[in-house]
């Protein structure tokens, strides 16, 4: 009798464990899962007709709205005397191809609806529900870009980006988009970079936090953005190896790579 009860208890606990793991795993995966076409259609707030495709991540609508695609950044086209960035033409042509038969697009939004240029920030979908952003990422013609507080789809977009990177597609063929050791970064480097290094020092100014990666390069985080790093204690990560993606600039001979969210800093 005792053995039967003991076996029943073991089976009961195993059952509970299986159920717990099922729901726990489902919850974790749901945070990063990409919406399907119908789910994206269900999120559409309104629709518009595209009148002009400026580049891979900017559209103009017939009603006058200027749309900046949310969550991605595509290579810049030539402007103000600057040459086009590699794969800018391919990104623009892909969007034109997607809209060649039907220029009607659906829009959905995140927390912040406009950028500093007064463009509308929107996730843009084709009439069948396909995401233009996800298609560009999958082809290697865009990078995932997080500008807080708009981060609803970052998990999905980073997964798609990582797959394109592993397959060496599009922009991920370029040397500039490979991970580089902080000590090897050129003093002339400017723009978006992917850098790995060890945190050597921590310091603060009135408006910023600095995490030193080399004698000439530091990670810069504006104090106003500290809320987007809720699980990181900057005072306790000295000596830790980090991967960081952000924009490199030089001021008074010292380089900094600016980031605004924990999504761009992996410890």
Describe the fold and architecture.
By secondary structure, this protein is an alpha+beta fold. 26% of the residues lie in helices and 29% in strands. The strands form three sheets. Strands 8, 9, 10, 11, 12, 13, 14 and 15 form an eight-stranded mixed sheet that branches. Helix 4 packs parallel to helix 5. The longest helix is centred in the N-terminal third of the chain and has 31 residues.
Which labels suit this protein?
eight-stranded mixed sheet; OB fold (Dihydrolipoamide Acetyltransferase, E2P); five-stranded mixed barrel; alpha+beta; 26% helix; 267 residues; 2 domains
Give the class from helix and strand content and strand pairing: alpha+beta
Number of β-strand runs: 15
Question: Poorly predicted ranges (pLDDT <50, ≥5 residues)?
Answer: 12-31
Helical content (DSSP H or I, runs of 4+): 25-40%
Top CATH class of the largest domain = Mainly Beta
Largest beta-sheet details: 8 strands, mixed
Shape label: globular
What's the number of structural domains? 2
Per the CATH scheme, the topology name of the largest domain is OB fold (Dihydrolipoamide Acetyltransferase, E2P)
Oligomer: single chain
CATH architecture of the largest domain: Beta Barrel
* Average pLDDT over all residues: 89
- Output the helix-strand order: HHEEEEHEEHEHEEEEEEEE
Strand content: 25-35%
- Amino-to-carboxy terminus distance: 53 Å
The tally of helices reads 5
Nearest-angstrom radius of gyration?
Answer: 22 Å
